[in-house]
Amino acid sequence: MTGVLHFAVDVVHQHLSGHRPAGTESTYYFGLHSAYALGQVAFAALAILVVRSGSDVMSKIPGQVISLAAVAGWFVICLKFIEYMPPRINIVIVACLLVGAAATA
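Request: output the structure for the sequence above.
Response:
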C-alpha cells in the first residue's frame, strides 16, 4: 500500500500537476521515486507469498539478512534522495517488523 501511495503522490501527482518542468532533473526524480515505489511493492508481494506459503524463511539467517539488507538499501536511498518524512517512517516500521519476525522465529 505504501509503495502504491508513494508512486501516486510523488510520481503521478507531480507529473499531472506540472510541478516539475521537463529536463534531466525531473527524469531522475521520476525514475528514483518509481524505482523506490516498485521496490516497496515487490518486497511486499514477496513477503505476502512467503507468509501465505507457510515458509519458515524468516527463521533462517539468509532470509533475515536479505530482508534487512533490502530495508537498509531503501533507507540509504531515502536518506540520500527523498526529502519527505513519511517514507522514512515507513522504513522504520518495516525494519521493526522484520526485527520482530526474526526475533520470534
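The longest helix spans residues 24-53.
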